[in-house]
Amino acid sequence: MIAINDFMELVRQTNALTNKENEEDLCQLVKNYANLEQVMDWLNGLVECNNEEQTLKLASLMELHPLGFEKYVIWNDNFDGPRMRLHYWPENKWPFESIHDHRFNFCSTILCGSYTHETYNVKQGNGNHVELELTGSTLMKKGDVYYFPAGMFHRVLPSDEMTLSLIIRSEAILPYSRVVDPSTKILRNAFGAKNKFIERISNLTQQLSKTKSGLISGGGN
Q1: Taking the model in full, what pTM does it have?
Q2: In contact, 62 and 56? CB cutoff 8 Å
Q3: pLDDT value at position 220?
Q4: Is the dihedral of CA 46, 47, 49, 52 positive or negative?
Q5: What residue ranges do the domains of the chain occupy?
């Protein structure tokens, strides 16, 4: 067994999260260490952890992801920096994912179960409409590892079994990700939590300013 911090230090030393040329080194490292038994040991360590601040920080990043899986961050460096997380799809509860890219590079391995990984070429059409070209379809099974760069389009298709994958992602490289609805072929931009927060606070401030101006002009208190 290897401690989670020691493993992430080995990940950092590959320099693969920022340099795609080193992706094979990272994939081999993940294949050598990151199996289900090892990840369960890391999870037990989190449960028994006495660092309440760190536990609360990781808990705040837990979510039911818009793409349909449960996301658990189990290691993070800093806000929007490198992270290690689990993606969990319960048996027979898979929605179909939209086609999307990521703001970051990542390496993934299947800990149990399976899914089909599709890659796409997306060409801009009129307005927000795009053209989609399927460029690859691979059945990913337990123990399989792959690297996927920021800005490339893909999606995951369901299997009939409970599936758990481990994701090791870089810090954000691009300002936003892009999501395509395969039924309408309409593309939209999706921003990270920091940008979403700033945007919503800015919108709230604008609304409050309008309300305040209305109260002043109307003689309200």
Answers
A1: 0.81
A2: no
A3: 53
A4: positive
A5: 4-217
How far is residue 23's CA from residue 46's CA, in Å, rounded to a whole number?
A: 28
**What are the pLDDT digits (tens) for 69-80?**
888 999 988 766
> How far is the C-alpha of 193 from the C-alpha of 167, rounded, in Å?
18
Taking 3-state DSSP, the helix, strand and coil percentages for the chain, each rounded to the nearest 5, stand at 30, 35, 35
pLDDT per position as a tens digit, 202-217:
777 877 777 766 656 6
CATH of 4-217, one of 3.90.226.10, 3.40.640.10, 2.60.120.10, 2.40.10.120: 2.60.120.10
Of 34, 85, 89, 41, which is closest to residue 61 (Cα–Cα)? Answer: 85
Q: Judge whether 73 and 61 are in contact, CB under 8 Å.
A: yes
